[in-house]
Amino acid sequence: MNTHFLHQQAVVLQENGLQLQLSADTTAYFNYYWLRDNCSSSFDRTTRERSFDIFHLEQPPRAASAEVDGKDLVISWANETHVSRYPLIMLADYVSGKHRADPADLARKAWFSDHYPEIPRFSQPELLKDKQLVAEWIRAMIVEGLTIVTDMPDSDQGLTETVRLMGHVRPTFFGEYFDVKTHINPTNTAYTAKALELHTDTPAEEYAPGIQFLHCRANSVQGGLSIYSDGVAVANAFRTIDPEGFRLLSEIDIPFYCEHDDYDMRSRQRVIELDQHGEVSGLTISQHMADIFDLPQTLLDTYYPAFCRFGKMLQDDRFMMRFMMKAGECMVFDNHRIVHGRLAYSATSGDRYLRGCYADRAEMRSTYRALVSEGRFKA
Ligand SMILES: [Fe+2]
C-alpha cells in the first residue's frame, strides 16, 4: 500500500482513505467509505434517492488507483469493477466536516413592543397566485417568527388553503382545527372570556406544533386585545442580565401537562431552547399548563426566581405588543418562539371568534428551500 507522499503528486492513497491536493496550498483527506458511498452513480436521478447500498459491499472499499483528471477526481476501486468520478468542487464542500449549507438557516431578527406597524403583512389572494411571495412570506416567518396574512376569506376553507401554501395542517391531540370563542363548559382557559397570559401552545405534547395560524373571523367585543412577545428578544436580554438564570432555564426540563377525562398528556421541556449554534431559537412556556415542578426542592431555590424573573420580562413594556385583531386577518407565528395571549374581554359586548390550526416548522423550511434553492438534483 502506498503511504509515501510523493512531491507534486495530486493523490496519495492511504489505508483508509486518500490525500488529495485540492489547490496549491490545500491538501485534504477523504475516507474511502465516504467516497464510495457518494459516487454520483449512487443516486437515482428519477427518484432522487440513494440507490447504492453500502451495506452490500463484501469488503471495505479501497481505491486501486486514483488520479485527478481535469476538474475531477477519478477512482478505480479494488475488489469491484467500478470507477467513480467526483467534481473537485463537490469534494471541497465536504473537506472541513462542516454541516451542509442550508438556505433555511437564516439569522433571526428580534423584535420589540413597537413592532406592530412593521409586522410583515401578506395578502392571502396574492399569496395564492405568487410563489415568490410565498418564499418571502416564509422567509419572514423564519427570520421574525410572526407575520399577518390579510384579506382572508371568511371561510374555513380559506384557512386551510393558506396553510397548504407552506405545508399541511398538523393535528394535535385535540384535532386538526380549534375554535377560540366562549364555551359553556370550557376545557381550556382560551375558551373563556378571561385574560390569557403569554404562552406557547400545547407544551404538553412531546413535539409541540411549530407554526400556529389564528384566523380572526369576528372581533367586535370590548377588550380582548391580543398580546405578543418575541421569545428570542426576551431570552437574549435575559441572558445578558441573568446568565445563571438563563443557564437554568435553558438546561433544566420542567414538566407540562394537559389532563381531562379522556387524555393525560405530559412532557418535559426546557423553557429556553437553543439551536445548533447555541443561539436562542425559542421558548416553551405556559403557566396554565405547567405541571407541579417535580424537581429537587433545593434546586427550586434558584430555578423559581429565574423562572419568575423571565416570566415577568415577557410581559415587560419593552417587549410586549398589544393590538386589536381584525376580522379577515390571520396571525401566523412560530409557536416555539413567539408567546401569545390576550387581555380579558366582555363576552356579552359582541362576537369574538378565532379559528386556528398548526403546521410543521420543518415542513415550512422544506417548502422554503424548494422555492429558493437549486438543491442537489434540480440543476
Ligand atoms: Fe394559545
Automatic annotation (TrEMBL):
The keyword Iron applies. Residues 123-358 form the TauD/TfdA-like domain. Its cofactor is L-ascorbate; Fe(2+). Its EC number is 1.14.11.1. The keyword Oxidoreductase applies. InterPro entries: AlphaKG_dependent_hydroxylases, GBBH-like_N_sf, TauD-like_sf, TauD/TfdA-like. It is an enzyme of class 1 (oxidoreductase). Keywords: Dioxygenase, Iron, Metal-binding, Oxidoreductase. GO terms for molecular function: gamma-butyrobetaine dioxygenase activity. Belongs to the gamma-BBH/TMLD family. This is Gamma-butyrobetaine dioxygenase. It comes from Peteryoungia aggregata LMG 23059.
